Model the fold of this input.
Amino acid sequence: MLVGCWVFFSYIPVMKKSLRFNSIFVPRENYGVNLQFMGLTEMVAFVYNHFGGNPNLRMLEIGAYMGDSTFIWAASGIFKDIYTIDPHCGEEEANDILGVDWKDVKRNYNTNTRFFNNITLIPDYSYNVVDKFKDGTVDFIYIDANHSYEGVKKDIELFLPKLSKGGIIGGHDYNKEWSGVIKAVDEIFGKPDITFWDNSWFKVIDK
Done:
């Protein structure tokens, strides 16, 4: 029986790196400090302080990948409902870097989100499902999907009307390596209100 169990488990791939947890993006000069994780915890504190403990917050995450960040947002307990949009298919540079396929990614997403019953995955591209959300009904939108200028701009323009008054819209990779992100964000908002250790950006919408 033990031999059988060993044979079974030996076929389950072990993820040694991810985008947020044991991150592949930890520069040597950071002495091993994982700013992808630290930046996320920094964001959690900002969101909590901004909304003042509102128990009915709704979050939308565009681009969930393995669910690393989804896990942290859910574990924080800030949000009543979390919606993630990700087709888990198509071209993805991180798959090549990590040496995984979409089956591995989806399995890790399911593992990372298994503890929470307030997470809803919408398995599609963001532009196909924008009408599932009524205007003014989402308190926090986080964009981490297509990082091209056109992709980021389209996601912001499509989903900005869905944000509630005083809500926050933000995203990942506001840095020179992803110049399209910077261009789209600056073109629409001027500049973000704040950026974080992991190069995420936030803009508070008061209108």
